[in-house]
Amino acid sequence: MTGRLAGDTCDRDPIWDREVETETHEAAFARASAAWQKQFPYLMQHSGFYSRRFREAGVTSDRLSLKDIVQLPFSTKADLKQAIDEAPPFGSNLCAPPAQVKRVYQTSGTTGAPSVLALSRTDIETWTVIGTRTYFATGIHDHSSVLTTFGAGPFVAGHTHFVLSRIGCRSVPVAPGDTDRVIFGLRSGLADTLLSTPSFAQYLANKLEKTDAKRMDEVTHIVTGGEPGGGIPAIRNHIQQVLGVTVTEVMGIGDIAPSLFGECPHQQGMHFCGGGHVWVELIDPDSREPMTIEAGAVGELVYTHLTREAMPVVRFLGADIARIEGSTCECGRTTFRVRVIGRRDDMFIVRGVNVYPSAILAVVGEFRPRVTGRARVVRKTADVSITPPVPIEVEVPAGHAGDSRLQAEIEEAIHRTLIFRAKVDLVPEQSFGESGYKTRLTVNRP
């Protein structure tokens, strides 16, 4: 840890939701159960989408305990899109009257038309409460000056602006991808904290490593989110060493809440910050059987709204594969902590072994400064299984694209660490693609 973050404490600040974030597992379950006893009848009465699905699953009563939630079917993005298509624009899962919808966000629509995410006044406040817990956990307090690269809309990350206002810190908004203005703001001393994707933070470190990075002495903290990476040691360590900052990360999911998990400056994984509003399960990604949330467990995170009014979801498959890091922490929080390993939709199989692109990034990152740290898997077909050698493109600075020795070293390191053969292509920065926001970890290229 660096800077004043190492000395930050939460116990004196009224924004810290001590009752929720330090409660026992039993108390957390009791709180969630009480909320669910109201939420489930609400769904049965007001959600045409879910009441039909529940009855099809054999659940006809409007009473169901939280312990029995496993009787209910999972929800996927495709299911929620189907609900919207049934009754656009908000869908058959809109539980509140349309007049009570006071804010609407949109999904990216990368695989089709965008979907909408409707919020009531209560939902807006809930997202702000959860987000405040999340970002406060990372070390952003009222004394912070925060430059954020998250746009105001249409995506849910824009809700972060309301969170920063609630915390009471200085906010310096900059449009996504406006690298020059970000650097100006940070070098001018306008902010001591940067909110960005790990891809952009990595890009910034690579760019300033070649110049005068010390002109950003005011910056002590970078909070990453929007994609895996901020918790990968090779990526995190490089950003911290070059920029002299502490890197923590947050994670949310658009259909649930923009931010649900926040990592404190002790950097031991992201604390769950949605207590009382969101119920989280852990399941085996293959069998979908329930797993216990305990230190060392690895599975897919599943989410259920406990208090959402407008468009609640139940047992939503988040696609994030996470490792549970434990619960108690020196910061005082007792909620469970996670570290994301990768996403199920990015995962591929090599000779029966599941591989996540984030594991490849961890290997590639060890070859700096001959590489930038960015890499992607090239998929020739839509099949989940890839026959080795696995095609991998690795971004390199100018002058290294023809380095056959580097290429062979990376291939050998991947084989040694991840136990599969790779065919590495070195791609110069100017040809790899935009790095101002997110980096696609897999690309389809027949």
SSE arrangement:
Layout: H1 18-21, H2 25-46, H3 48-56, H4 77-86, E1 103-106, E2 116-119, H5 121-138, E3 145-148, H6 160-167, E4 170-173, H7 179-187, E5 193-196, H8 198-209, E6 221-224, H9 233-243, E7 246-253, E8 257-263, E9 270-272, E10 278-283, E11 290-291, E12 298-305, E13 316-326, E14 337-343, E15 348-350, E16 353-355, H10 357-364, E17 375-379, E18 390-396, H11 404-418, E19 422-428, H12 429-432, E20 442-444
Parallel strand pairs: 3-4, 3-5, 5-6, 6-7, 17-20, 18-19
Antiparallel strand pairs: 1-2, 7-8, 8-9, 9-14, 10-11, 10-12, 12-13, 13-14, 15-16, 17-18
Fold and architecture overview:
With 446 residues, the chain is of the alpha/beta class. It has a domain at 348-444: GMP Synthetase, Chain A, domain 3. The protein is built from twelve helices and 20 strands. It has a twelve-stranded mixed beta sheet with strand order 4-3-5-6-7-8-9-14-13-12-10-11, with helices on both faces. A four-stranded mixed beta sheet has the order 19-18-17-20. Helix 2 (25-46) packs across helix 3 (48-56), helix 8 (198-209) crosses helix 9 and helix 10 (357-364) crosses helix 11. The longest helix is centred in the N-terminal third of the chain and has 22 residues, at 25-46. Residues 6-12 have low confidence and may be disordered.
Tell me about the biggest sheet? 12 strands, mixed
**What is the topology, as strand order, of the major beta sheet?**
4-3-5-6-7-8-9-14-13-12-10-11
Helix vs. strand class: alpha/beta
Question: CATH superfamily membership of one domain, which one?
Answer: ANL, C-terminal domain
Alpha carbon gyration radius: 22 Å
Measured between the Cα atoms of the first and last residue, the distance is 44 Å
C-alpha geometry: globular
Helix content: 25-40%
Annotated CATH architecture of one domain:
2-Layer Sandwich
Residue runs with pLDDT of under 50 for 5 or more positions = 6-12
CATH topology (level 3) name of one domain:
GMP Synthetase, Chain A, domain 3
CATH class of one domain: Alpha Beta
Overall mean confidence score, pLDDT? 90
Q: How many helices does DSSP assign?
A: 12
